[in-house]
Design brief:
Helix content: 25-40%
Order of helices and strands: EHEHEEEHEHEEHE
Structural class: alpha/beta
Number of strands: 9
Shape: globular
Radius of gyration: 16 Å
């Protein structure tokens, strides 16, 4: 079995608070910002805390929040909740961008971790020059092809192991190590 870098509940919670401070210090987020929860099944808690803890920057109102499904590392498709079918991530992302993004707003894309960076890279490519945006995640692997604007910890997978949160199923076959591009 591969070596695993376990993230405990307490480490995750403390690191979310650190991420919130990093985002706040940049003075980029304001009332025109939409929070985008990427991989909602993994990142909802991170987005929820960011939304509540930074709501004072939005007249004490929660930020609008969008959800963006992202595929597992070994997959190239996602479940489209509106169509109730599996679609390619590229098709889903193109339709999602056209439906939800507007150039009069800013978007903060939030994911719990940036491991390979391929999903964030596709998002960046899809929205580049269309809207103002930034990326945030708690953890980023050093070899990721995209480094988020905001993150708490950069780690080396070869030294620490594959990142896994305490609440995850560490036997999930959809997370098996894939070759980096």
């Amino acid at each position: 079995m591969n070596n695993l870098y376990h993230i405990s509940y307490e480490k995750e919670r403390l690191d979310i608070l650190k991420l919130i401070e990093i985002i706040k210090k940049d003075n980029w987020i304001d009332s025109s910002t939409i929070l985008v929860t990427c991989s909602p099944d993994y990142s909802s808690f991170v987005s929820q805390l960011i939304n509540h803890k930074l709501s004072h920057l939005n007249n004490n109102e929660l930020y609008e929040n969008l959800f963006l499904e992202m595929p597992y590392p070994i997959m190239s498709q996602v479940w489209d909740r509106e169509k109730l079918e599996i679609v390619s991530f590229d098709t889903y992302l193109k339709e999602w961008v056209n439906k939800y993004l507007t150039n009069s707003l800013k978007y903060l894309f939030i994911d719990s971790a940036t491991i390979r960076g391929r999903n964030f890279s596709k998002v960046k490519y899809s929205i580049n020059n269309k809207v103002e945006y930034k990326f945030a995640s708690l953890y980023v692997e050093e070899q990721s092809i995209l480094i988020p604007d905001y993150y708490v910890e950069k780690y080396n997978e070869e030294e620490k192991g594959e990142l896994i949160f305490t609440w995850e199923n560490d036997n999930n076959p959809n997370w098996k190590k894939t070759k980096k591009l």
